[in-house]
Amino acid sequence: MTATMQSPIRHDWSLEEVEALFAMSFNDLLFQAQVMHRQNFDPNEVQVSTLLSIKTGACPEDCKYCPQSGHYNTGLEKEKLLEVEKVVNEAKAAKEKGASRFCMGAAWRNPRAKDMPYVLEMVKQVKSLGMETCMTLGMLTADQALELAGAGLDYYNHNLDTSENYYGEIITTRTYSDRLETLQNVRDAGMKVCCGGIMGMGESARDRAALLAQLANLPSHPESVPINMLVKVQGTPLEVQEDIDPFDFIRTIAVARILMPKSHVRLSAGREDMNEQMQAMCFLAGANSIFYGEKLLTTPNPEADKDMMLFKKLGIRPEQREQAHSEDQQEAYLHDAIQAHDQQQRMENMFYDATKTA
Ligand code: SF4
Predict the structure, then answer these.
(1) What would the DSSP string read from start to end of 111-141?
(2) What pLDDT digit, counting tens, does each position of 222-273 carry?
(3) pLDDT tens digit sequence for 193-215
(4) How many domains does one find in the chain?
(5) Is residue 89 within a helix (H) or strand (E), and if so which, with residue range?
(6) Is residue 355 in a domain?
(7) Does residue 282 have an active-site annotation?
(8) Is 59 part of the annotated catalytic residue set?
(9) Residue 4 falls within a domain, yes or no?
(10) When you count CB atoms within 10 A of the terminal residue's CB, does the N or C end of the chain come out lower?
(11) Cβ of 134: how many Cβ atoms within 10 Å?
């Protein structure tokens, strides 16, 4: 085995070393990533989170991929900050359906002083439901980070998006060092960090390697590393961007797994544009976290949920959680949903559908 395998937790990766991982043969890279994955995680468990937008659109930042930016006309309906009660009700519904972590996102450059009391109240009340809490609110000062930690916020999401070198091509309204400063403030306040990037924005292979090296060389690895595939939204400057090669995306997951062996690597935005086989390869490469989004929570027909079916086909279970009650609920819910789907399929097989042509 390589030196990488003998000393898995490192914070001193050179760009050349990371590029060398990307350059490995695909099978060798996936094998190494899978070995690393098995040393640190149950390979058949995937962590599941639920996400709610608590303030949508009209963001003053100019992130070229984002439909929520006020700089682009994407037809997105704006929403002001949701009332605390509504957020808590959504969290309750999520909990009832088995989610144990609730992520709340606001399209802000940074939270304003007048927003903070509402946001802190949301954290306290969602936390009091017995759920883990996560927020993404833009840049944070050291004091704001301390306030959020004090209210009980477990995770803070703040992505680096891409390499430092390519960053200026994607965002001009804040700098890479602004991002790093917020990450440091979050760490200093004692919260867990969720930080990753977006692939397929026109960046080079070297930029992908540089982003992963940057993440792996942070003083502590982010506990959660979302690897997103660009969703090309009409009206954003990246709407006509060329697709990333799926193998390059899978390689990025595998390298992230090798560099940050104990982090949850999250298969995040863009999953709806991946077929099942690609998602399965991402899991094989070491991805072990997904967002279910609100669909799982709101659909009256969970048996139709494709994610659940993919879990079943692959023999994947939702990851065990810290809170036994939530774990049991989540397991039970997924079990019921899979059973319901089986039942529906049996029914469909029993009846001839005259509306379908041969
Ligand atoms: S800061 Fe967040 S919400 Fe605002 S434009 Fe950038 S990605 Fe979108």
Answers:
(1) --TTTHHHHHHHHHHHHHTT-EEEEE-S---
(2) 999 999 999 888 889 988 889 999 999 999 999 999 999 999 999 888 887 8
(3) 999 999 999 999 999 999 999 99
(4) 1
(5) helix 84-96
(6) no
(7) no
(8) yes
(9) no
(10) C
(11) 24
Domain-located, residue 2: no
Amino acid 176: pLDDT? 95
State the pLDDT confidence band at 290, using cuts at 50, 70 and 90: confident
> Ligand 1: which of 53, 59, 73, 156 to mutate, most ligand atoms within 8 Å of CB?
59
- Report the pLDDT averaged over residues 155-160: 95
Residue 138: CB within 6 Å of ligand 1? yes
Bridge partners, residue 135, by sequence: 104, 156
| Residue 3: pLDDT over 50 | no
Residue nearest to atom 6 of ligand 1 (CA): 63
d(CA 32, CA 292): 28
Cα(125)–Cα(64) distance, integer angstroms: 34
What is the position in ligand 1's atom list of the atom closest to the CA of 71?
Answer: 5
What is the span of the domain harbouring residue 152? 10-350
Give CA separation, 24 vs 21, 251, 282, in Å: 5, 9, 17
pLDDT at 264: 94
Residue 330 lies in a domain: yes
Decide: 319 and 43 in contact? Cβ < 8 Å. Answer: no
Distance from residue 192's CA to the centre of ligand 1 (Å) = 21
Q: Would you state the pLDDT for residue 317? A: 83
Buried b (16+ CB within 10 A) or exposed e, 206-223: ebbbbbbbbbbebeebbb
Query: What would the pLDDT profile of 53-110 be if each residue is shown by its tens digit?
Result: 887 888 888 899 888 888 888 777 777 777 888 889 888 887 776 677 888 888 889 9
Tell me the three state secondary structure of residue 352: coil
CATH (domain of 303): 3.20.20.70
Catalytic residue flag (residue 195): no
Q: Is the CB of 69 under 6 A from ligand 1?
A: yes
Q: Is the CB of 61 under 6 A from ligand 1?
A: yes
Atom of ligand 1 nearest to the CA of 159: 7
Tell me which residue of 153, 320, 157, 280 sits closest to 225, measured CA to CA: 157
pTM of the predicted model as reported, rounded to 2 decimal places: 0.83
| 257 given a catalytic annotation | no
Residue 70 Cα, ligand 1 centroid: separation in angstroms? 9
